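Minutes, methods subgroup
Present: GH (chair), OT, SY

1. OT presented the first of two proteins processed in the latest run. Sequence and structure tokens recorded below as shown on screen.
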Amino acid sequence: MIFRSSNLSQPLNMMRCRYLSRLLDEEEFKRWFNTALGTVRSAEGDLERGDYNWACFKAHQSAEFAVKALLRGLGLGAYGHSVSALLTAAPLQLKALNVLQQAKTLDKYYVPTRYPNAWAEGSPADYYTREDAMQAIEYARSIIRWVEEAWRSLRQERVW
């Protein structure tokens, strides 16, 4: 794809972002984004029941689904389970760095929240607290809000 701009000093990534905003796949975005919203609600239910390890895992999943909604809505590849790695594929203008630290925290909940062999003894439920789950859900909601704002911004840039 060739990107042309009358302003040659404009960064390529900004041009790429504007180009991609014209190709938004609204249906694909909604499909993944609605899954993210349902998953974070499920995490909140786990928190209420005291299933803190599952709340942490689902918080991670909801953030992953939200970021994949953005990337897939832009027609970009969205593979893997690391939320922080997925964020690196987002156009720079969307300022994914604002939620990168939260994503890195959530990435730590992908495997050990579910697998007993991730721990020397006990089971995952033994290692997660209410505070862990509350923070994980807060971080997931923050990433979901970031995705929603990024998508809104891209939709406003769309040129028909």
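2. SY then presented the second protein from the same run.
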Amino acid sequence: MDATLNPVTTEATICGILVHSQPDGMDQVRQRLMALPGVEIHGNSKDGRLVVTVEDEQRQSAGDTVMQIQNMKGVISASVIYHFSGEIEDTNQEVSQ
């Protein structure tokens, strides 16, 4: 039996951010970042750098979240190193047979 997947396209904004914090305050910055909607931490280094992605959320845009990170206590700098804005396909749908 053939099953077809009909992806739904939605608008999305995804930003890759390099966050630099004071090394001795990185744990606090990590906690603050994890509390933000649409934020994921993918890695960090001992010198205070964190690799972060930010996605649009219903209640807050990725751009607003990036600005919030740049102004966050303990953050020295937050640089956007990747930006995508456009339609993406949602392939996490159930396949009907």
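Chair's summary of item 2: The radius of gyration is 17 Å.
Next meeting: continue with the remaining queue.
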